[in-house]
Amino acid sequence: MTPVSPSSGGPAPAPAPRTPLVEARSLDWVPTSERHGRVGLQGPFWFMGNFQPFTLAIGLVGPSVGLSLGWTAVAGIAGILFGTLFMAFHATQGARLGLPQMVQSRAQFGYSGVLVPLVGSLVTFVAFNIVDTVIIGSGLQGLFGWSPVLVGIVISVIATALAIFGHDWLHLAFKVLFWISLPFWLVLTIGVLAGAAGGTAPADPGGFSGTGFVIMFTVAASYNITYAPYVSDYSRYLPEDTAPAKIIGSVFWGAAASPAWLIPLGAWFATNLGATDALVGLHDAGNEVVPAFGSILTLLAVLALVATMGLNAYSGMLSLVTAVDSVRPVPRTRSVRVVAILVLAVVWTVVAIGLSDASAAVNNALLIMLYLLAPWTAVNLVDYFFVRRSHYAIADLFTPDGIYGRWGRRGLVAYGVGIVAELPFIHVADVFSGPVADALGGVDVAVVVGLVVPGVVYLLLSRSLDPRQEQAAITRSEDTLADLGGGA
User: Fold this and answer.
1) How many domains does the chain have?
2) How would you classify residue 190: left for phi > 0, otherwise alpha for psi between -120 and 50, otherwise beta?
3) Which of 133, 221, 347, 387 has the fewest CB atoms within 10 Å of its CB?
4) How far apart are CA 159 and CA 311, in angstroms?
């Protein structure tokens, strides 16, 4: 088996030269000769991915459920550290395998079976862009009177173009925005600490609430766990011999540091400014520090969020094309990438224009995405680190006739058990509350169940799997990939 042509659904077309404008690859395996990424850039990249108004909006959740500023910070940072731990471990898969994240998941769920967790990842990418569009549109309307419909269309066009240009342009945009934005956020934070950002101490500062703490922890944890399907997409151009610890560490500090900074800041906006909109709070506090400073910082924050929408669109394209490819082979062409991105852009723009309640969208969308993705990340990480220990027949991931088959029974069963196990523990206000969550007074611990149960089930089911039996296929795959531009 040597599936190499674009039309046959193989791991890669003939090695393509890098283009300075539009990325050539989509679902393809990235040959060694094209691995030009730098592990040191992963930290700033993921730092910037969270260095935007969506993260501030997470900080508004704590005070809304009765937590004080201090307890919001504690719960938020604890949740971020917990969620980022799972996210960061996915990063090493991109460099080791040179594949988009959800293509690699075919090893656990099967060539067609991967469609099941793909639903969760697609919901993630589209939902984030819907909420981002709502946050930007409503915020800029409140601040400057701009039409949210026009704003939604303009930012969607920019995000779509960035996603079409692809991997290197996304990394470049995030790098530039990181260095431009960092000084402004530092000045604002110093202004808040020095008492120069306005606001007054709240008459009711809130306090500690067990239910509120768990809600805040869960929302913060879900924020970075829902990044898990992205991570390999942006580490797959790293050299395959990059030390896993370096990749994991770089992604972890980057993805955790900016929310640990901005979530408490958002909570301060809520408690001291009475802000219910992250952009409005950012604008008002900044203008108190230095006249017009808040307006400039607001626009920079919007640009960062628009770049993150490009990130969502890019990974959403990879998930959508993987889903279609699991039904019938998809050519590895730029036109397929462009069409997939445009379809997603139309969906998120149309839905976002019809929404107006950003706070409800943030909370509920994050929770629902978490329930769908926690079982997937558990199965994927257990398979990679404990079952197959990073050894895969990459060429077989691109054919239903390979060693992973069309339906991965172990992965699908573990995922299904995980979803069912979560149901009694789920609590989404005004949507659904399970019996255990009700008995706990609305405390939602479904995320813990969704990570532990499917991971254990998959590990037990995999006791009958002998990875050594896959070695012949792995060797054949390595020979195939060597002909395409480098070994795996």
Assistant:
1) 1
2) alpha
3) 347
4) 8
